[in-house]
Design goal:
single chain, about 110 residues, about 60% helix, mainly alpha
Length: about 110
């Protein structure tokens, strides 16, 4: 099996497993997924908001907040899981596309 095919299969498996990021913390009563805290959550966890986080949290808005499409946020686990998988596939496709375009521009000409 080609390396590229193995990589795509691995990425597909990871995309299908992506809903575990919100399902497991919810089932284990562990709060938000690790590393995906808002500035308010960081403040409640450590007692303050780091300056850089406070500054950047107002600059960046996620294209698909909470990995759910508008109106799907509170519709249950199945729609949220589908939206999370779709977000993962979209992210993978964007990264592959960007890498492909950069490869074309950076390719050495003979």
């Amino acid at each position: 099996m080609k390396t590229q095919r193995k990589l795509l299969i691995g990425l597909g498996v990871l995309a299908l497993l992506s809903p575990l990021g919100f399902l497991l913390p919810e089932k284990l009563h562990a709060g938000a997924a690790w590393g995906e805290w808002s500035a308010e959550e960081v403040k409640s966890l450590v007692g303050y908001v780091p300056r850089g986080l406070a500054k950047l949290s107002t600059v960046w808005d996620a294209w698909i907040p909470d990995y759910a499409f508008k109106g799907w946020e509170n519709r249950g686990h199945a729609p949220r899981s589908l939206a999370t998988i779709a977000s993962a596939i979209l992210g993978i496709a964007l990264c592959i596309g960007l890498g492909w375009v950069l490869g074309i521009f950076l390719k050495k000409k003979p």
